[in-house]
Amino acid sequence: MEYFTKMIGDKGAKATFYLQTPNAEIDSTRKYPVVVIVPGGAYFWTSWREMEPVALDFLGKGFSCVVMEYATEGRDFYTKNFDPTKEVVSAFPNPLIDLAKTIALLRQNAATWALDAAKVNLVGFSAGGNLIGQLGVYWDTDWLEELVGKSKTLYAPNSLCIAYGATLMAKQPLLKGFEQLDHATLGVDKSQKRADLANVLDKINEKTPPTFIWHTTKDAIVPVKTALKLGLNLEENGVPYEMHIYQNGPHGLSLADQRTDGSAKYAKSSAQVATWTKLYCNWLAENGLAF
């Protein structure tokens, strides 16, 4: 395995690579499918629980993995030093640009890093689900191509996995108590126009890549009805998808076992929800996006 980190863009984003290395005992010419993991954290910060443990899980399943940490101001800014006049590095579309650049970097180095450039799969948790959703609906736009400065074919995702993803995130009355969320997502300019761009639930189109969705009915942060509406929008646009709605479990389950659970009495562990990784890998294989 190769392990290294690269800075992305000029805002402080970084990507950490966990790459399979071909071996002659198996196949010295093998090209590995990729899982790009994008954590949540409300654009305030990036959650470790949704980064390295997830990467190591999928690495063990045979994928090369990349953890993409979009730039944020960090927890202390929002809990101790909040300044609503400060333009934040997490403001749309900065994370989107850096995610696109990360995927372009993967494809540009696919031969060197033994990657299958046609099997670049994105997994996004919570706010990370919002971010990969943005790429899923905007990758083919000219305005994003201009901002990224690279051909859109280099950063087009082959699939999305939206895990309790906040496809509706900015200016959402249901998210009461998260007033600073708008600032983290939009920055100083909180116009409805910018909010509409950051929210992707109703932006699904025929060029959105195949999508795997999982959510729980008991999620008190991101309402399950957004996942159900996402599935309906994919259906109406003819986009292949699979959706799993688990009955129980709070927001932020990650792998849903003790590897990512530091809560009281392991409240973020669920044998039922933990099946999502197997279901997702089977779905990737069924769509020709694994080995």
Automatic annotation (TrEMBL):
- Name-wise, this protein is Sugar hydrolase
Q: Which residues form the BD-FAE-like domain?
A: 28-230
This protein's source sits in the domain of life called Bacteria
Whether Hydrolase counts among this entry's keywords is yes
According to the entry, what is the taxonomic lineage of the organism?
Bacteria, Bacillati, Bacillota, Bacilli, Lactobacillales
Which UniProt keywords are listed? Hydrolase
Please report the organism this UniProt entry assigns to the protein.
Answer: Ligilactobacillus murinus
Q: Which Gene3D superfamilies match?
A: alpha/beta hydrolase
Give an example GO molecular function: hydrolase activity
